[in-house]
Amino acid sequence: MGTTATLTSPRRCPRSLRPSAQHRCFLAVLLIALLATACSSGVAASPTTEAPLPAGPTPSKIATQICRSPAIQDIETTVGVAASISTPTWADHLYSCTYRYPNGSMVLSVKELSSWTQTKAYFEQLGRQMGDARILRGLGQAAFQTTDGSMVVRKDWKVLLVDTAGLPSQFGQPPTSSGEVAVTVADVILGCWDGD
Question: Are 174 and 24 in contact (CB under 8 A)?
Fold first, then answer.
């Protein structure tokens, strides 16, 4: 079983980070807070008690946000490096695209499901496949970091995967660990999903 880090509220740094990483994380958190209004403008945020919608024949607006503006600009500003974005794919209710950088790549994907049972089962399956190394509380309804530093987040009937296995161990401007990049990118995406 992995270790646990707590994000006591959205866009907070895990206390388990080294002091220098904490400093970079707090700067990123501040930047994310400033960007959140721009990102969330893609879909109106409003409180709702409605049940999540089941997976459909086309990807939801929430899923498609990972591969389009303003999330692309928010991620670029956060990591400090511009990416070229691959043409998104949609197969078996999985929406995905690759952020290609000069020295590596990061794959973002959202799996859309049709019930709480399906969603939790898929989330747990990723934990078994990728290694559930560290639980993060405060991101979505459940989140963990994999053994390679990637992030998996469950929110409603969707599972977000920020796969940073294709990035170098130190990435971005200023350079930070690919694992920290995964946490930050997941937090940016969840900021886009606020109210949905």
Answer: yes
- At CA 38, angle to CA 166 and CA 186, rounded to 5? 30
Query: Strands 132-137, 104-112: parallel, antiparallel or unpaired by DSSP?
Result: unpaired
8-state DSSP, 50: P
**Closest residue by Cα to residue 127 from 106, 107, 148, 96:** 148
Q: Pairing between strand 104-112 and 158-163?
A: antiparallel
For β-strands 151-155 and 132-137, DSSP reports them as unpaired
- Are 22 and 12 contacting, i.e. CB atoms less than 8 angstroms apart? no
Separation of alpha carbons 154 and 120, rounded Å: 8
Q: Rounded distance, CA 146 to CA 101, Å?
A: 22
Three-state DSSP at 102 gives coil
For residue 109 the two structure tokens come to 């994907």
Whether the predicted model's global pTM rises above the 0.90 cut:
no
Residues 90-125: tens digit of each pLDDT: 999 999 999 999 999 999 999 999 999 999 999 999
Using alpha carbons, select from 33, 34, 27, 44 the residue that is nearest to residue 11.
33
Question: Phi-psi region for residue 144, left (φ > 0), alpha (ψ -120 to 50) or beta?
Answer: beta
